[in-house]
Backbone:
């Protein structure tokens, strides 16, 4: 019963929040309308959402988001310094990152995080989802880079989405 | 304070737009041009936001949001065309 | 006080936006050029939007509108960068880094 009436509680909350931001008002009426939309939209589009999102440990996810936001700022300072420095001295490389994650949402979150953080852009996901090709702007030690990404970003995502 | 900062910010973002146009015109390849176009969208959002602060008016946000949406869809469509457009097999 | 924070955010935002576009022109191959706009410009516009949210919240009425645009940019910028990189790999553009064998021959 609960499955049919409220198929995606997380999506409902996110949609309600987006509605509140869109109308730029936190009045009770808008809160109600937002919750109504958040309830109705997943219900009418449920065929587009075959997988259910399970967040096993919200606190780890929150910590992960804080770390990523911090890293985005650091990434920008590093990339800005590289751009303003001498472009000829850059050593760009392609690095193959072996993936432990299997959940598709987790993989796409990892790819997005890699693009937003220090000097790396995710380029291509292997068809069997076993590798992610990453382009680094300036990196001499590709093994250390792989190790850093796995420890800092992949481990918490695995904990959250694949307990 | 804000009044003195805004013209400087306008100048910087306008210069950024000029640089984007340079890349848009001189390529050399299609992905470069699409990337320039995508950056142009983002810089336009920056200009709109600055103009909103400058004129102390909230009504430019819908435009900024729409440019963000359309810019993303446009970039995705163009890259998809590059990926699927020239079919070798 | 809040005026100074807003001014600083506007300046930082405009500076990063400019640096991102400078990277687009200065760097030597497509893959390195991809780094400028995806990072610097996104953060630049993000901090401009944050400044605007603070500016319109000064009067006491909260203005969270801008957070939505920021969120949207932060989610979509990596996606479009990823697609562009994929397209570039598919077209086998000139690259300063050694392109991986297996990937460029596939498709």
Residues:
């Amino acid at each position: 019963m609960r499955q049919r009436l409220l198929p995606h509680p997380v999506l409902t909350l996110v949609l309600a929040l987006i509605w509140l931001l869109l109308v730029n008002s936190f009045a009770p009426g808008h809160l109600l309308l937002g919750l109504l939309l958040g309830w109705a939209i997943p219900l009418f589009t449920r065929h587009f959402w075959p997988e259910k999102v399970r967040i096993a440990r919200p606190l780890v996810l929150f910590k992960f988001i804080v770390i990523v936001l911090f890293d985005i700022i650091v990434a920008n300072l590093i990339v800005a310094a590289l751009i303003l420095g001498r472009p000829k001295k850059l050593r760009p490389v392609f690095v193959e990152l072996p993936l432990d994650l299997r959940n598709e949402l987790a993989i796409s979150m990892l790819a997005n995080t890699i693009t937003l953080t220090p000097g790396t852009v995710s380029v291509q996901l292997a068809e069997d989802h076993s590798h992610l090709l990453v382009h680094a702007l300036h990196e001499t030690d590709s093994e250390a880079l792989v190790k850093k990404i796995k420890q800092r970003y992949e481990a918490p995502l695995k904990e959250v989405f694949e307990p | 304070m804000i009044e003195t900062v805004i013209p400087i910010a306008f100048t910087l973002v306008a210069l950024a737009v000029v640089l984007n146009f340079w890349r848009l015109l001189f390529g050399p390849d299609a992905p470069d041009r699409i990337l320039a176009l995508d950056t142009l969208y983002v810089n336009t959002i920056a200009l709109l936001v600055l103009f909103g602060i400058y004129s102390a008016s909230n009504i430019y946000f819908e435009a900024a949001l729409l440019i963000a949406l359309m810019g993303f869809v446009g970039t995705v469509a163009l890259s998809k065309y590059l990926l699927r457009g020239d079919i070798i097999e | 006080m809040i005026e100074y924070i807003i001014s600083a955010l506007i300046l930082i935002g405009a500076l990063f936006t400019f640096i991102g576009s400078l990277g687009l022109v200065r760097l030597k191959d497509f893959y390195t050029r991809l780094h400028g706009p995806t990072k610097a410009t996104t953060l630049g516009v993000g901090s401009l939007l944050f400044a605007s949210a603070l500016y319109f919240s000064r009067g006491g009425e909260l203005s969270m509108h801008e957070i939505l645009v920021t969120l949207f940019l932060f989610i979509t910028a990596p996606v479009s960068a990823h697609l562009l990189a994929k397209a570039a790999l598919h077209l086998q553009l000139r690259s300063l880094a050694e392109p991986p064998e297996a990937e460029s021959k596939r498709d």
The interface with chain C takes residues 18, 20-22, 24, 26, 72-73, 75-76, 79-80, 82-84, 87-88, 90, 92-94, 96, 111-116, 119, 121-124, 133, 135, 137 of chain A (CB under 8 Å). The beta strands of chain A are 93-98, 120-125, 131-136. Chain A has two domains: 2-48, 58-161. Chain A has six helices and three strands.
